[in-house]
Write a structure and sequence with these properties.
The chain is mainly alpha-helical. Among the domains are: 40 residues, no CATH class; 94 residues, Orthogonal Bundle (Cyclin A, domain 1); 89 residues, Cyclin A, domain 1, CATH 1.10.472. 58% of the residues lie in helices and 3% in strands. A 3-stranded antiparallel β-sheet has the order 1-2-3, with no helix packed on it. It is extended and about 75 Å long. A hairpin with a 5-residue loop joins strand 2 and strand 3.
């Protein structure tokens, strides 16, 4: 007698629970779409009541667990990210130069010669036509010059993007690949706030300074890069470091540049020469004397330029005080 009574009571409670669940169900057609929000788990929720209207939960994460960075890296299914610095964006496969098998053991001489042939053909088929070969050469030039200048990876990426845009706009026609790639690197340095002078760029390039400047102006105008004038203060830390000057000189040089630039002395002047003169003046004021020749060699300007800018800056500073 007790058993059936309990079952009827359980069934009654179950019916009541189902009735409550049905009462909580919301028909999407009866709800204002503006009152629905999508949660991070992919659920469509009624914002006012908090009830779930639609549930489409897809877990995009991996099915394994990892507790350390090395575990996550070892279980990752993806390779290196795509990069603009390679003509194929790093998507093609490469054959390792190590002549070893999967267990790290050396392979036979027959297999080594076979791998050598495969490696050679792999390099050949990575570029399908002359256009890709030229792009590969241009991007390798950008990478070579960027390494020589010591600029970060972000500058190489931006330079590669600029060169690709120039290639798509057919701006390479009638100009050398080296000239356009160098101009792209010079533009990338300026856009990333790590300026290098044309003299420094030309030292690592295979083309002359005039061609670099002419190509840069053409590419910048055609692509609408909208370059801002170079701030001479961006050269100060690097020049002071090469001259082995302390923080006081660096700070004083920045102050001289700010004061004199506000008076309009920077207009039409070379930023490297302006920065070099400010460093020379600051070194004298801080008793860290450097000769004009030493500063000129680091900034790659003439001593005459430093003397002229130095006189203008000193007069402006005296007038300011």
């Amino acid at each position: 007698m007790t058993g059936p009574t309990r079952r009827r009571g359980d069934r009654a409670r179950q019916d009541e629970s189902e009735a409550e669940d049905e009462a909580d169900v919301i028909d999407p057609e009866d709800v204002d779409p503006d009152e629905l929000v999508r949660t991070a788990d992919g659920e469509l929720m009624h914002e006012e009541t908090g009830l779930i209207v639609d549930e489409d939960r897809i877990d995009p994460g991996p099915e394994w667990r990892a507790f350390t960075h090395s575990e996550r890296q070892s279980k990752s299914r993806v390779g290196a990210p795509t990069t603009q610095t390679m003509h194929d964006k790093g998507l093609t496969t490469t054959i390792d130069w190590k002549d070893k098998d999967a267990y790290g053991r050396s392979i036979s001489s027959e297999k080594r010669s076979q791998m050598h042939r495969l490696r050679k053909w792999q390099e050949r088929i990575r570029t399908k036509d002359a256009g890709e070969r030229n792009l590969q050469f241009a991007l390798s030039e950008v990478d070579r010059m960027a390494s020589a200048l010591g600029v970060p990876r972000s500058v190489r990426e931006v330079a590669s993007v600029i060169y690709r845009r120039a290639l798509n706009e057919d701006l390479i026609r009638g100009r050398s690949i080296e000239g356009v790639s160098t101009a792209a690197l010079y533009a990338a340095c300026r856009k990333e706030g790590i300026p290098r002078s044309l003299e420094e760029i030309s030292e690592v390039s295979r083309v002359g300074r005039k061609e670099i400047g002419r190509t840069y102006r053409y590419v910048s105008q055609e692509l609408g890069l909208e370059m801002k004038p170079v701030d001479p203060k961006k050269y100060v830390p690097r020049f002071c470091s090469e001259l082995d000057l302390n923080e006081e000189v660096q700070s004083k040089a920045g102050e001289i540049i700010e004061t004199t630039a506000e008076q309009g002395l920077l207009s039409g002047k070379s930023p490297t020469g302006f920065a070099a003169a400010a460093i020379y003046a600051a070194s004298l004021l801080c008793n860290e004397k450097k000769t004009q020749r030493e500063v000129a060699d680091v900034a790659q300007v003439t001593e005459v330029t430093i003397r002229n800018r130095y006189q203008e800056q000193i007069e402006a500073m005296d007038a300011h005080t």
